[in-house]
Specification:
Exosome complex component CSL4, 2 domains, 2% helix, OB fold (Dihydrolipoamide Acetyltransferase, E2P), 1 helix, exosome, elongated, mainly beta, NA-bd_OB-fold, five-stranded mixed beta barrel, four-stranded mixed β-sheet
């Protein structure tokens, strides 16, 4: 059963008209340089963009200004994500949060997970993409031995739910395990494929099909 899933025409149209929309954020804090020790991991801080974790602390890897926002990890624990940004007064920024529905682009497939980029949070197109990871166990319910390449492919766009923030390398952890989540637009070579069934995407011109874990989104024209 899906939880407060909001799917609108925006999720489809935004892929073809990626206009930048404003968001919201808290204030930036202080200017730092690469290698600056920032916050202790023991107090719930985690590395985000422009940071890394080592020896129990979050360190900066860029020159800029620190920005901290509240989030949740994959287990639902409250954490504080630390980012480094170039501008001091960078306002109106939307960030993914646990349980949010996001649109992501699949970048690469590994043996146990797919690397993705979050481009949209709910109905808001982002002006900065966020790294995310789709793990094999977060694709189909009650299935552990999922073949990733039969579910998603590089270049696909997916609707997914944010589980929480992983480590600095994996970024946000996302899931398409719900029926309404999955591929909404697929890529095969130079051809775009659209949802056909819950298991297939199809070319609207050649009728060529490929397997995917397809999002069963409502029909907006009905």
């Amino acid at each position: 059963m899906s939880r407060n899933l909001v799917v609108t025409e925006f999720h489809m149209s935004v892929l073809f008209d990626p206009s930048i929309l404003p968001g919201c954020s808290s204030d930036l804090e202080k200017s730092i340089i690469p290698g600056t020790r920032l916050y202790p991991i023991s107090e719930g801080y985690r590395a985000g963009l422009g940071c890394y974790e080592i020896h129990g602390f979050v360190f900066s890897s860029l020159t800029g200004y620190t920005y901290v926002y509240d989030s949740n990890d994959a287990d639902g624990n409250d954490i504080k994500v630390v980012e480094i940004r170039k501008k001091f007064n960078e306002k109106h920024r939307i960030v993914p949060v646990a349980d949010a529905i996001v649109t992501a682009r699949v970048e690469a497939i590994g043996p146990k997970s797919a690397r993705c980029s979050i481009i949209c949070v709910e109905n808001n197109m982002l002006n900065h993409e966020f790294n995310s990871t789709l793990r094999r166990e977060d694709i189909r319910p009650n299935e552990r031995g999922v073949d990733l390449l039969k579910c998603v492919q590089p270049g696909d766009f997916i609707l997914s739910r944010v589980l929480g923030h992983g480590d600095a390398q994996s970024g946000f952890l996302i899931s398409i395990i719900e029926d309404e989540l999955g591929v909404i637009l697929a890529q095969s070579g130079d051809e775009r494929l659209i949802p056909y069934t819950s298991e297939l995407v199809r070319s609207p011109t050649s009728n060529y099909t490929e397997p995917r874990k397809v999002a069963l989104v409502p029909n907006m024209n009905s």
